[in-house]
Automatic annotation (TrEMBL):
<dbReference type="InterPro" id="IPR011856">
    <property type="entry name" value="tRNA_endonuc-like_dom_sf"/>
</dbReference>
<protein>
    <recommendedName>
        <fullName>DUF4268 domain-containing protein</fullName>
    </recommendedName>
</protein>
<feature type="domain" description="DUF4268">
    <location>
        <begin position="230"/>
        <end position="365"/>
    </location>
</feature>
<dbReference type="Pfam" id="PF14088">
    <property type="entry name" value="DUF4268"/>
</dbReference>
<dbReference type="InterPro" id="IPR025364">
    <property type="entry name" value="DUF4268"/>
</dbReference>
<dbReference type="GO" id="GO:0003676">
    <property type="term" value="F:nucleic acid binding"/>
</dbReference>
Length: 386
């Protein structure tokens, strides 16, 4: 690895170091770096515990425990300058222990982590997990199924027996990854390179494709099938009511198994959406273009007309910029028990009434948004001297 000197138009080699000679430790340094920057693994992971010792009849400690966007537990074992011989066996034991954790166990483990390390935030673990997994109700999500556990090893150097075993385990549909971490120095500056070596990056997408295909072939959980049937039945009744109403947005929309149903507003990636959940009904405008800056500009454009929009709609709206995410949202909601069919007529009537007003409030501004996006006014200005 080389450092670029743009002024001299030269490159100079960085000096490879070991963690030991730099005085870094596994627990107080490498582990903390990973906890606070999980993006180094190339995906979104939510750290839910460190130094986890909640295994029955054993005093062993798992370095890091995380959960991925699919609800799978991720066992992360860190080593410094050498992986050691027994790290695979150690990680497999932890994966076996974690395979028995229930959803309530995971919530409890994460709550203890939040209470210990973020006591002033007063956050409920179940709410944070729902937000991370992007679901309305945590009870509707399958988490930590029996063979879904993943293993990630982190070390500066790997013994051959470790890499061979990890590659072999990968053939049995067990998600195994090895990341190599290398510290470098240049004068007083220190650098850290983190790269995935198993599976090799060039075959990662191929392996993901195989796993996705196999996942699709698995039998769907009975409860999930029931929920899908319930949603489709609700949307069939709701769409029938919309077709009889003055609102024509959903005339060409088909029932869905999802908790949402969207219709075009005339501007790409700005759909009018109906939300059906166990706890509430909602009408919303989702601003979800690929460019975050375009979403923010659109959101601010509409917000500048907030008084006018809310006056036409007849109620105050929730304006959600959702910082840190690509999309923004403007919504209006009302509590309902969505899984009680006796409430469906009221829910549907509420959706129809409010979507009519919702469209009337926002439609006059769609041409302005279209021109804003077409002309690229949301893009940052580039000065000639840059």
């Amino acid at each position: 690895m080389y450092k670029i000197d743009s002024q001299q138009n030269r490159i100079s080699p960085l000096i490879t170091k070991t963690f030991s000679e730099l005085g870094f430790s596994e627990r107080h340094h490498l582990q903390e770096w990973l906890v606070n920057t999980p993006a180094v693994f190339g995906e979104e992971l939510l750290m839910i515990q460190k130094e986890f010792a909640g295994f029955d009849d054993t005093k062993e400690r798992l370095d890091l425990l995380a959960i991925d966007k699919e609800g799978n537990l991720v066992i992360i074992e860190n080593k410094l300058d050498d992986s050691g011989r027994d790290v695979v066996w150690q990680a497999l034991k932890y994966a076996g222990y974690c395979s028995n954790l229930t959803k309530n166990d995971i919530i409890e483990i994460y709550q203890k982590y939040l209470d210990q390390y973020f006591p002033n935030d007063h956050v409920k673990a179940s709410d944070r997990l729902s937000e991370f997994l992007e679901i309305e109700d945590l009870q509707t999500k399958l988490i930590n199924t029996s063979t879904s556990q993943r293993i990630i090893l982190v070390a500066a150097n790997y013994r051959k027996e470790v890499t061979n075993t990890m590659l072999w385990l990968s053939q049995f549909n067990l998600s195994c990854q090895c990341f190599k971490v290398t510290p470098y120095s240049s004068n007083s500056d220190l650098f850290l390179n983190i790269e995935q070596i198993i599976p090799p990056p060039e075959i990662k997408e191929f392996m993901i494709g195989i796993a996705a295909r196999e996942a699709e072939e698995k039998t769907v959980d009975i409860q999930l099938k029931h929920r899908h049937k319930l949603r489709r039945e609700f949307w069939e009744q709701a769409l029938e009511a919309f077709r009889k109403s003055p609102c024509k947005l959903y005339n060409n929309i088909s029932p869905s198994d999802d908790h949402w149903l969207s219709a075009g507003s005339g501007v790409s990636s700005l759909p009018y959406s109906l939300i059906f959940s166990k706890k509430e009904a909602r009408v919303e405008l989702s601003i979800s273009r690929a460019e975050p800056d375009a979403n923010n500009a659109t959101f601010e454009y509409l917000k500048s007309y907030r008084d006018q929009i809310e006056k036409i709609f007849g109620h105050s709206l929730e304006w959600l910029p959702l910082p840190g995410k690509k999309s923004c949202r403007i919504q209006y909601a009302k509590p309902f028990d969505g899984y009680d069919k006796a409430e469906w007529p009221s829910m549907i009537e509420w959706m129809v009434t409010n979507m009519i007003k919702f469209e009337q409030a926002f439609a006059p501004h769609m041409n302005g948004i279209y021109q804003l996006l077409k002309q690229g006014q949301w893009q940052p200005k580039i000065h000639e001297d840059e």
